[in-house]
Write a structure and sequence with these properties.
single chain; two-stranded antiparallel sheet; 21 helices; globular
Length: about 425
């Protein structure tokens, strides 16, 4: 076991840490996470429009079109916001002007993604003659295009600035004005580059990437049980190594997760049944059904610690209970610890694999609906599952069942660990 731990520390940990801290990967992660408030608030409007109380639904009915607008300007143009966030984050790592970089990236993304529609003959009361831009092309479906255009735009800006292909202003000119002139030539190059690619050559970056990466999306964040289990395994495995699992997996899996929940929300808004949405394995599926108390389903371990004979474990259980209730589990992961602990590391990995499988089976058999909203991760799991599946009581019940299963899986490992801890405490008392 010591050799395995040494191998993980010496070989795996440095590689994983390097991937996590790589500037482009970090920028993607930070930029996409920055859009979370938008999707969460957009979800609240989705929930509001689908409250299962007839009297309230009747009251809302005349205002549905107006109440749908916030969703369209949050989740509906998610890629636009992500572009700015990714570019700004990457620019910060290069010590470039973040505002300028974000604006240039948004311009590049719009140029590479949107083809304006010319309406010659308007229809009175419906649409006027003129040029229009489709909001649909800015949705989560273009998220990979947003990532690529943001990175390319910032790299062009950085290259031209480092090689002095810019217009410099005399000393004494305010920095804001100087930065604007410095960005003039990079703006022209970025604009022309994406204009030629999209509108002269007709190459759709977002469309190409969507087709290219669709198989991976279907595996990792679609409806594949194997893909779902692989995601769960990798996240928990990295945690056991002492690495923040979602931080490592984030740049790879988060764009797929964001696309999946956005597709579900959009389909539901457009009238699809909550049992027939596009994707099962959204982040919310794992968050509410599997990560009860945090990654690894650690709330179950916290409860077991509360009833431990070990003074340390009982104290740790009390300390970790309130954070665990709201799905924050760093105190238990690093306090027990679960990190580099083969006794607690095994159920930390195995329990989520079991609850993921059960939740998947109940979802495909339509006992439990799919996720149609995105709530803050600190909401209590049974309540969040109930709301996120369009008020399904079975979803809330599944959380409780999974919690009981997780306790049962943790229990024998907990007893072994408790015995070890009691011996340590006894030795310390004798000393």
């Amino acid at each position: 076991m010591d050799k395995l731990v040494d191998f993980l520390n010496d070989k795996i940990l440095p590689v994983a840490s390097m991937i996590s801290s790589q500037r482009h990967m970090a920028a993607i992660r930070k930029g996409i996470i920055a859009t979370l408030p938008l999707t969460i608030i957009g979800s609240f409007f989705t929930i509001l429009l689908n409250i299962p109380i007839e009297s309230i639904a009747a009251l809302i009915e005349p205002f549905k079109a107006v109440l749908d607008i916030p969703f369209r300007f949050t989740v509906g143009i998610l890629s636009l916001y992500a572009t700015f966030g990714i570019a700004s984050s990457l620019a910060r790592s290069y010590k470039l002007d973040e505002m300028t970089s974000g604006i240039l990236a948004v311009m590049g993304f719009l140029m590479a993604t949107v083809v304006p529609i010319q309406v010659v003959d308007g229809a009175e009361g419906i649409i006027d003659a003129g040029r229009y831009m489709s909001v649909g092309s800015l949705s989560s479906a273009s998220l990979f295009g947003a990532i690529v255009t943001a990175i390319i735009s910032v790299e062009i800006y950085r290259f031209m600035k480092e090689k002095n292909f810019t217009i410099k202003m005399p000393e004494g000119v305010p920095p804001e004005v100087a930065n604007s002139f410095i960005a003039l030539l990079p703006t022209a190059v970025i604009l022309l580059f994406f204009w030629i690619v999209r509108h002269v050559f007709g190459f759709d970056i977002s469309g190409f990437l969507s087709v290219l990466l669709l198989p991976f999306k279907d595996i990792l964040a679609g409806n594949s049980l194997i893909g779902g289990l692989l995601t769960v395994f990798l996240i928990t495995f990295f945690w056991v190594l002492g690495i923040h699992g979602p931080a490592i997996m984030g740049p790879v899996i988060r764009p797929f997760w964001d696309i999946s929940i956005a597709e579900n929300m959009t389909a539901f808004q457009e009238g699809a049944s909550v049992n027939a949405l596009p994707n099962i394995f959204t982040e919310q599926f794992l968050q509410w059904f599997v990560w009860i108390g945090g990654a690894g389903g650690t709330l179950a371990l916290v409860v077991l610690f509360l009833f431990s004979k070990s003074k340390y474990l009982k104290s740790l259980g009390r300390l970790s209970f309130l954070p665990g209730l709201f799905n924050i589990n760093e105190p238990i992961i690093f306090g027990a610890p679960i990190v580099m602990n083969p006794i607690l590391g095994i159920p930390f990995i195995v329990a989520p694999l079991v609850t993921t499988t059960l939740s998947y089976i109940l979802t495909v058999t339509e006992v439990v609906p799919m996720m149609m909203a995105r709530l803050p991760f600190t909401v209590l799991s049974p309540i969040a599952a109930w709301i996120s599946t369009n008020w399904s009581v079975m979803a809330g019940l599944l959380v409780i069942i999974n919690f009981i299963i997780t306790i049962a899986i943790y229990y024998p490992f907990f007893k072994v660990f408790e015995k070890q801890q009691l011996l340590k405490e006894q030795e310390e008392t004798e000393d």
